[in-house]
Design goal:
It is found in: Cell membrane; Membrane. Belongs to the complex I subunit 1 family. One of its GO terms (cellular component) is plasma membrane. Its EC number is 7.1.1.-. The protein is 68% helix and 2% strand. With 345 residues, it is an all-alpha fold.
Length: 345
């Protein structure tokens, strides 16, 4: 029985890992296509029909380019940086419920790798580790632009993790649990989605998610106009590819997390009124969940080509003087409304 359980989880891990890499790979194509559409040009359209083979060509280019390790760098940490970045990006998805259980051969199969009761804390712990990959890469490069990008990434991460954590405290006050699986299960249907109870918390969370993923308008750690390429200035070949992959994986996982915490995850309206079997409800739920994820990914890309980059002082001021006070006010308001509800209703 234990062997079957381990085998089931290994298969699920391989499937999720493969889907994550494929989505991250084709997110690069989607971003270039969306950029082309918004700038009135076609985007990549040479490699395969409509350019669908372009990510494979880009991946091949990364693999076959010359590997350069700067003479003055710390070689071990220089190599460890991108590895740590990609590993932390991939393991964040372990506690996300991708769907309800499937019934196969009279056995229920969970579509969640690990339903731990402190799932939210696990995610924050792994996200906090992710910045170490950037710090190691920037410091070990022995390049002033890389170091400045790494310091910016660390300061930005610390600043916006506080706002993100405070925004989630209000959500946890409503749900009463740290388990991501339970939070999603509580949002059955449509009107129970947490976005209706926590709109301000969601706005704070998604703003902090942009900063955590180093996406425009918060891409200060790698802004080309100031720091050449930021913390990965000295990187080439697949090490550069790992840093880029980790960014797109973080964007995918952040989208999955926002869909799970605020938009019902795999839940969709009238899911139990359609008269379908459990397996069909699960399959449709998974498709709905990924549709929500792709909607958030599109929003990430849309913002990139819509808003200008912040100055660094504006970034810090927004994090410490706007988002954190707003998050604290949201906690107080949530507490007051919860007390009134429990007392009079």
């Amino acid at each position: 029985m234990e062997t079957a359980f381990i085998l089931e989880k290994l298969i699920l891990v391989v499937i999720i890992f493969t889907i994550t890499l494929v989505i991250a790979m084709y997110s690069t194509l989607a971003e270039r296509k969306i950029a082309g559409f918004m700038q009135d040009r076609p985007g990549p359209n040479r490699a395969g029909p409509f350019g669908i083979l372009q990510p494979l060509c880009d991946g091949g280019k990364f693999f076959f380019k010359e590997e350069i390790i700067p003479a003055g760098s710390h070689k071990a940490l220089f190599i460890l940086g991108p590895i740590l970045a990609i590993v932390t990006a991939c393991i964040t998805s372990a506690v996300i419920p991708w769907g309800q259980t499937l019934e196969i051969g009279g056995k229920s199969i969970s579509l969640q790798v690990a339903d731990i009761n402190i799932g939210v804390l696990y995610i924050f712990g792994v996200i906090a580790l992710g910045v170490y990959g950037v710090m190691l890469g920037g410091w070990a490069s022995n390049n002033k632009y890389s170091l400045m990008g790494a310091v910016r990434a660390a300061s930005q991460s610390i600043s916006y993790e506080i706002g993100m954590g405070l925004s989630l405290i209000a959500l946890l006050m409503i749900t009463g649990t740290l388990s991501v699986g339970e939070i999603v299960a509580q949002q059955e249907g449509f009107l129970n989605w947490n976005i209706f109870a926590q709109p301000l918390g969601f706005l704070i969370f998604i703003t902090c998610a942009f900063a955590e993923c180093n996406r425009v308008p918060f891409d200060l750690p790698e802004c080309e106009t100031e720091l050449v390429a930021g913390y990965h200035t000295e990187y080439s070949s697949m090490k550069l590819g790992l840093f880029m992959f980790s960014e797109y994986i973080n964007m995918f996982v952040s989208s999955a997390l926002m869909a799970s915490l605020y938009f019902g995850g795999y839940n969709f309206p009238f899911m139990y009124d359609l008269g379908l079997s459990q397996n069909w409800i699960t399959i449709i739920g998974v498709l709905v969940f990924f549709a929500k994820i792709f909607g958030f990914i599109f929003f990430f890309m849309w913002v990139r080509w819509t808003l200008p980059r912040f100055r660094y002082d504006q970034l810090m001021r927004m994090g410490w003087k706007m988002l954190i006070p707003l998050a604290i006010a949201n906690i107080v308001l949530t507490g007051v409304f919860t007390l009134i509800k429990d007392t009079y209703f």
